[in-house]
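> run fold Dual specificity protein phosphatase 4
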Amino acid sequence: MNSSDIPRSMAVKAISGSTSSAEKNSSDKEEEKSEIYSHNMTEAMGAVLTYRHELGMNYNFIRPDLIVGSCLQTPEDVDKLRKVGVKTIFCLQQDPDLEYFGVDIGAIQDYAKKCGDIEHIRAQIRDFDSFDLRMRLPAVVSKLYKAINRNGGVTYIHCTAGLGRAPAVAMAYMFWVQGYKLSEAHSLLLSKRSCFPKLDAIKSATADILTDLKKELVTLTWENSKCSTVEVSGLDIGWGQRIPLKFDNEHGSWTLQRELPEGRYEYKYIVDGEWTYNEYELVTTPNKDGHVNNFLHV
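> ok
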């Protein structure tokens, strides 16, 4: 399967299997958090994705020595993985991911260390951010490779839901280290687990390695001297962050210069707190909600 075979919307659901599910927590608060997380994941990844944290840890063997799954929630989950031969737990979550669902990562790490026959490793990647995934993949896969060589056995790669970051890291490892063609790794992964790894991020990370991550200086301009603040979101920083533009008194406009590696970047302006786009720059076609973004190619 190549990138042209991927549908724009893919309905997948992570369901706990009999060998990997924890006892269901039926509290309304947990269900509400799962609903919000699933909605945000769907919006960010362009696929209908569902994660039910209250159902416990879920996972799938991709290869006999490689598992992709959702996050560990309690120290007891460490024992569940030990029983299937896991020697390395490779966690891609950031602290805000853990805090959102109330996961005590310290307790999990302490228990794994106490066991002595399993290693817990963190290699953080920002959730719902394909550019951050692209930038961090080489270092993360290098860390994964060293851990696997050191520990042997089965490796468990997880993010929060096990639907985006974790399958992408597993696929990059299979592609870069284990000798799979990218299309073969992608097909094998999807045959074992319904998920939506960002293929473009892996392709771009591969190009970055081969081209030594060459960057090009780009300039964004907002022609309006009457507003008081202009910011931009998207680009290489993701939609959850903003960068302020500087006002150029000589030209009466707001500008931002930024070095970007090769790729396609969508972005939007925030002018005096209002999200908008620049009609004088390239714009995307309207999405299902009628929204458009600016974009550029490097």
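The chain has two domains: 3-208, 215-297.
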